[in-house]
Design a protein that fits this description.
two-stranded antiparallel sheet; six-stranded antiparallel beta sheet; 0% helix; single chain; mainly beta
Length: 103
């Protein structure tokens, strides 16, 4: 999986299509990612004891990585991520559209 935490992505499929956000958590075994402010579900929760308050809770649910695309600011749109060895022997992530090193 080429997407990482803190990458900016755009949703290309589903009810949140066209929305853009930052990845907060990546689940590589499930091939899913949690994006800030996207795919928000509501959950009705009962109070559990004296400490936890009950009510309606909004929670961000994971989206499949296949429904996401990397958003690159310099390309002004969707970009693909590749890998390249730099001159000093470090493996780096590279945008395939503009050949710019990511991070």
């Amino acid at each position: 999986m080429k997407l990482r935490t803190n990458d900016t992505v755009i949703v290309i499929k589903g009810r949140d299509r066209g929305k853009q956000g930052r990845i907060t958590r990546v689940l590589p075994k499930q091939q899913k990612a949690v994006i800030e402010g996207i795919n928000v579900m509501t959950k009705h929760q009962k109070p559990a004891g004296a400490f936890q308050q009950g009510g309606i809770i909004q929670k961000e649910m994971p989206l499949p990585v296949a429904n996401l695309a990397f958003f690159h600011e310099t390309c002004d749109g969707r970009g693909k991520i590749g890998h390249r060895m730099l001159g000093d022997g470090i493996k780096a992530r590279v945008c395939k559209n503009c050949n710019e090193v990511i991070e």
